[in-house]
Amino acid sequence: MRGRTWLGAALVLGAQLRALWLAAAVEVHTAKEVVAVNGTNQRLKCTFTSSSPVSDQLLVSWNFQPEDLSSHEPVFRYLKEPYKPPSGRFKERVTWDGNIERNDVSIIIWNLQPSDNGTFTCQVTNRPDVYGTIGEVRLRVVQKVNFSEIHFLAVAIGSASVLMVIVVTAVIICRQRRRKARDKRIEVADTEL
């Protein structure tokens, strides 16, 4: 009987420790997809929440996975201060745009190119919270801005409004002409009598 009590207590304690461990993890939040125009700059936003206060051991790692699924490339690191990559495609093209006090660890990629299409990952560790989610941002670099659905809707509503004004104006003009023609007929009939 004592063996079962010991086993039950161990299972309950294990479940509580697991729940506590999951609650102590860092959660990272990013946009899922970003579309940017070739040659422009783009801010890749990444924020985090942690059950612990931000420590001086906070580590931020940004990495890049190209669309062709070749090897991951380091983009940026932060440990007490920002560190730009010493080499690679993002050397001299990435800057820190975060604010640790606001749990913001965002970066800016400068002079975007089609070869920058791919997935950027943002990972944050804040001791003692070392485990947690990894934020992913899929970046699509396009040659020009696509005609979005909102623009299409705005053009459709604008066109419909203009068409409505033209129809109302035509109806008013037709009624006035009919009224003038009727008045003229009545006048001619009155003069004949």
From TrEMBL:
GO terms for biological process: cell-cell adhesion. One of its GO terms (cellular component) is plasma membrane. InterPro entries: Ig-like_dom (IPR007110), Ig-like_dom_sf (IPR036179), Ig-like_fold (IPR013783), Ig_sub (IPR003599), Ig_V-set (IPR013106), Myelin_P0-rel (IPR000920). It is found in: Membrane. This is MPZL2 protein. SUPFAM superfamilies: Immunoglobulin. The keyword Kinase does not apply. The keyword Signal applies. Residues 24-140 form the Ig-like domain. The chain crosses the membrane at residues 150-174. Belongs to the myelin P0 protein family. It comes from Chaetorhynchus papuensis. It comes from the Eukaryota. Residues 1-25 form the signal peptide. Keywords: Disulfide bond, Glycoprotein, Immunoglobulin domain, Membrane, Signal, Transmembrane, Transmembrane helix. It is a single-pass type I membrane protein. It holds the Pfam family V-set.
